[in-house]
Each structure stands twice: as C-alpha cells, then as structure tokens.
Amino acid sequence: MIKKSAVFCFVVALMGIYYCPAVESQVFFNASNISVALTDFHAGDPEPFANRTTEASLMSIIDAPSVDASEVHTQSTHVWVSGGELEVIFDFGQDYNLSTFHFWNYHSESFDVDDVDLVFFDSNMNIIGTLEDISPQLGNDTGFDSTPIFAEDFPLTLTREVRFVTARLSGSNSQVDFSNIGFTGTTTVPGVLLGDVNLDGVVNFLDIAPFIVLLADGEFQAEADIDQNGSVNFLDIGPFITILSNN
Fold first, then answer.
1. pTM of the model
2. Which of 57, 85, 87, 172 pairs as cysteine with 49 (C-beta 3.0–4.6 A)?
3. Could you tell me if 79 and 49 are in contact, meaning their C-beta atoms sit under 8 angstroms apart?
C-alpha cells in the first residue's frame, strides 16, 4: 500500500515549464507488494509449520492490510512452528528506505515469540545492517483468542536502502506463534515534466500524437495527467494546450 504525498507542481518563470518535483511516498509492505519464503535454514524440513501448509502459513505472515490492522487468533490466521525456530526471507522487489518493523505477536507466554533477529541486505545480498535480540511484547493484554492483536512497532535506523530482509524467530519453549509481520518504508516518486508525453525531455508538438493515443486508450501516464487528478481524460486537454502554447 502506497500513501501518495501531495505533489506540488510549479512553473519556471518565463520558460513555460510545468514540473512536478520528485517526492517521497510512504509504503506499507504486505502481500500486495512483497513476497516471503523459507530460508535454507529449513532445507531439510520444507513443511515446518504445525497447523497449516507452508504456502498458507507464509501468506498469513504478510496479509495484514495496514499498520493499524488487528487480528484475532484462529487456526486460519496464526503462524505456528512447534519444536524449533523459524527463519524467513522477505523480498521487496526493489530498494527501499525502511523505517519501521511491525510485529503481531501471540497473546500468551507459552507459545509467543520471545526473540526476533533481523538482517538487512541490498540487491546484491550484501549485508547492510542488523537488528538483533528484539523482544516483542505479548499480542494483547487478556491472553484470550477473542481479543484483537495489534502490531508492536520497532523503529529502524538504516543508512542504506534495503531489498531483502531475513527474520529469525524463536521462543523460550521452542514454540513460535504469531499473526503477522510488516514493514514501513519510503520510495521516491520521480519528478515529472508535465506534457512531455513522448519522454524526450521537452514539451512540443511531438507530444500531441502520444497524448491523443493515451486519451483514446484510457491509459495513464503521469506526464499526460496535466491537471494532476490521477487520471488522463478530456479534462487534461485544455491545460495540455496551454503548456504547448507556452513552449
């Protein structure tokens, strides 16, 4: 989930250039934009989960819809490894500046996660940082399955962008039980030269044909969204003509 920041476009005086500068957008990472898999730690046991298949359990790790979402403990929602540790690797698909680790723990001492170790990697799998000996709190205050479990947030202070993260989870009773894992970070949305539909760095009559194609096909391109309303349609024609006439 990407939360779009307000983008303020400006006109370079006397040049007629309409430019939207690059901005940072906040991203919550879940099943919609990251993947998770077992590491080689489980090479000898490809089905380490006690209650469900590996495929179903891995999907449950990253299915929280938002940072503030809650989840109640059921057999179809929780992730459980009995008699050992769990190690997984997250792939973000590209490099991001990660700012927060979110963890939804089990609600009782007998099965909860007592320790989490994170290792952060760049796109070339070079280690760029670690966060070890995280001791999560219990997921709720009552110890009952019916009481919602909310995330506990752990700030990250990494100096470089991250592509992969491994997480090693363990419990004092050799039980690993939790509901979700998530991350928050930022990505940079590139700057946009409004009207430069053919992406040659200038706005002129050569942009007219591709602009018309976008209108006809109903496709989106940031450079053609002249009125910045999130879609390319006939409302963009007037401001597009204005930009052309100023160049």
1. 0.74
2. 57
3. yes
